[in-house]
Amino acid sequence: MFRSSIVILALLCCATARAEDSAKRPNILFLFSDDHAINAISAYGSNLADVAPTPNIDRLAQEGMLFRNSFCANSICGPSRATILTGKHSHKNGFMRNTGKGFDQSQWTLSKALHAAGYNTAIIGKWHLMTDPQGFDHWEVLPGQGNYYNPAFIQQDGTTKRFDGYVTDLITDKSIDWLDGRDKSKPFFLMCQHKAPHRTFAPPLRHLDAFDSVEIPEPDTLFDDYANRSKTLATNEMEIDRYMDWAYDLKVRKDERGDVVLPAPDRYGTPEYNRMNAEQKAAWDAHFGPQNQAFLKEFQEGKLTHKDLVRWKYRRYMRDYLGAVKAVDESVGRMLKYLDDNDLAENTIVIYSSDQGFYLGEHGWYDKRWMFEESFQMPLIVRWPGVTKPNSEPEQMVQNIDYAPTLLEAAGEDIPAEIQGRSLVPILKGEDVDWRDSLYYAYYELGEHAVPQHFGVRTDRYKLIHFPVSNEWNMFDLEKDPQEMVSIYEDPAAKEIRDSLTKEYFRLREFYDAPPLPKAAGTN
Ligand code: SGN
Ligand code: CA
């Protein structure tokens, strides 16, 4: 009897010690959006951000650390998410493009590792990796790209259920509900992942007119002529001018147009509008109807020059995009408030990021994919109370391969040797750390938006981009030419830096064990 009491006591002590340990392990709240450019986050500072502040994301930056030199490994949705989950470049996790067989769930992932380490894990919102999520106690995800209005969510039992409302609000409600009902004996890892502000850039009804009366500044490169760089820049299909769809992106429906024939394209119809209920349609029509009529009249009367037309599209695009961002920012505010109200803020790491950057008219574009700064950059803000110095901005170049090892170390777990990224924990702690001085980039998609496969290296000052199919190289001095308008690859004065960057590019390809490059066109 006496002996068994001792055993029980010892077991209890052990369990208590473990419970205390796990109480100390930080919760992780991963707030993620889709296609949110840093130029649309006021904490990062830009002309645009001045007219469209993001106070809640900014609060996170003021209370935490904002990474100015944060980049993705492959600027496209599924691949970025696969990299975050695995800590590896696309060629190592197998998810190289959005199309294909889907994410290989037999491999190591951050969610499985944190789950095994005793975390209560969940993912809610956009997933986009095709195979069902694994390593999550709870998941509820959008099918594919998902919808903005009255969206469907795939349930864990495999069924799909449609919910009334606006997608960003629903993802937030569901995230808060999960936090409320979670297993409170464990630390949590919640990935709250928005669809917004992804194409079709649909704002919530409450923000339809939020930017109607502000002057939206225009990027210097809106009318880029694509000279002095790879010839593939001019053959892409992501220009606002030629590739924004009238109904789908620009919200000018066919049934509103009468006999007005707009310049192509006009491919998609109006999927979001068709999902709305009568009340939602009425609010949408009340907002867009009169504006569209005024525009169509001017257009029909021949009052708009080609540049006027591009500017009109740009403004419509930006108002809608920024309206969608405003709701994401409100979501961040609600999530932070939940942590405050529930005494969770102190022991929770909060991260704000997005799968890649996005063109907000720079180079005349929307969409992402290119290794140019606007889409290569990824927002990254981390608040870890007691660890990150408030309002700090580290210099180091970081990449989404670093997220998984960072969160593992934060959770007190070992980092598997196969992981290619590095833990950011020393940087978060403000320690002096011997860090990488170059990043590797690889883009593999073929098809939509006609951006060619390309690969490259970036240092703190220079960038080298390799287009193997057209057998071209571009190089930029980011200090002298931050908008990347003139390649200096052929410039004899840049020979030394070109040689060292080329060497570094091939070194990195070897270091990350990259697969062979695609062949030049016309060769086999
Ligand atoms: C969709 C969009 C594209 C976008 C890709 C990838 N077309 O296919 O414009 O580049 O997603 O975006 S759409 O007609 O379906 O809107 S990603 O963020 O998922 O990678
Ligand atoms: Ca994306």
From TrEMBL:
SUPFAM superfamilies: Alkaline phosphatase-like. Pfam families: SGSH_C. Residues 1-19 form the signal peptide. It comes from Blastopirellula marina. The lineage of its organism: Bacteria, Pseudomonadati, Planctomycetota, Planctomycetia, Pirellulales. The keyword Signal applies. CDD domains: G6S_like. Residues 361-509 form the N-sulphoglucosamine sulphohydrolase C-terminal domain. Belongs to the sulfatase family. The keyword Membrane does not apply. GO terms for molecular function: hydrolase activity. This is Sulfatase. Keywords: Hydrolase, Signal.
